[in-house]
Amino acid sequence: MNRIVTGNLGPDPGQEVTQALGLAAFQLLIATLCMTPMQRWTRWGGWIRVRRMLGLFAFFYACLHVLSFLQFILGWHDLWATFTKRPYIIAGSVAFLVLVPLALTSTKGMMRRLGSDWKRLHRLIYVSVVAAWIHFIWQARSDVGEMLIYGVLVAGLLWLRARWIGWNVLIPFVREQRSIK
Fold first, then answer.
1. What pTM, to 2 d.p., does this model score?
2. Gap between the Cα atoms of 99 and 128, Å rounded
3. CA angle, residues 88, 27, 35, in degrees to nearest 5
4. pLDDT of residue 174
5. Of 172, 136, 173, 180, which is closest to residue 154 (Cα–Cα)?
6. pLDDT tens for residues 112-133?
7. Which residues cross the membrane (predicted)?
8. How far apart are CA 127 and CA 130, in angstroms?
9. Of the candidates 15, 23, 58, 60, which lies 20 to 30 Å from 97 by C-alpha distance?
């Protein structure tokens, strides 16, 4: 991001901007997933209050990433050929499209309207973060070290949730099994 501010973007500034926006969106998605473990470890409820804002920031940066891709790289034409020739774009599209209903239902009014279905819907963030990671790892040409680190972080965060709540929590729209004691 610093290279954008200083104007040192190299020979393909559009590519640099698009990648920086996508990485920022991905990092914000990971930060969003970090809020629940932080709340559990510190017992401070403020982490959860920040979670929605981080998710909306992730969606905002993802929108900017998609728009910059269409403007600087693709040129707003021949979308179908791009999808069929570059499978990493399919994974990125899944990651982005899954975020749309999450952003649209992030208001308190929608939380009330959807009730318990709101939580199950918002489990789609797990699908989005995994698809975003696949998007990044597939497009990497040679240096995949950074994306492997992100992959380990995402896997660790998902493992924590599964360990605390159960593996079903990672699957969107599945009702939690309540044991009667």
1. 0.84
2. 7
3. 130
4. 63
5. 136
6. 999 888 888 888 999 999 999 9
7. 20-41, 53-74, 86-104, 124-141, 147-171
8. 5
9. 15
Biggest alpha carbon distance in the chain?
A: 64
Tell me the C-alpha distance between 91 and 84, whole Å.
12
Q: Which helix (H) or strand (E) holds 76?
A: none
The alpha carbon of residue 28 and the mean position of all alpha carbons in its chain are separated, in whole angstroms, by 7
> Residue written as tokens 């209050």?
49
Contact 124, 169 (CB under 8 A): no
Alpha helices by DSSP H, 69-123:
79-85, 87-104, 108-114, 116-122
Each domain of the chain, given as residue ranges in start order, spans 12-170
Please check whether residue 36 is in contact with residue 156, taking contact to mean a CB–CB distance below 8 angstroms: no
Tokens 């040679």 — which residue? 142
Please indicate whether residue 143 or residue 122 has the higher confidence score (pLDDT): 122
Q: Residue written as tokens 């640099």? A: 16
- What do you get for the CA distance between the two ends of the chain, in Å? 52
State both tokens at 32.
């969003």
What is the identity of the amino acid at 60?
F
User: What average pLDDT score do residues 169-177 get?
Assistant: 64
- DSSP-assigned letter for residue 102: H
Dihedral over alpha carbons 47, 151, 88, 72 (to 10 degrees): 60
Q: What is the pLDDT of residue 89?
A: 87
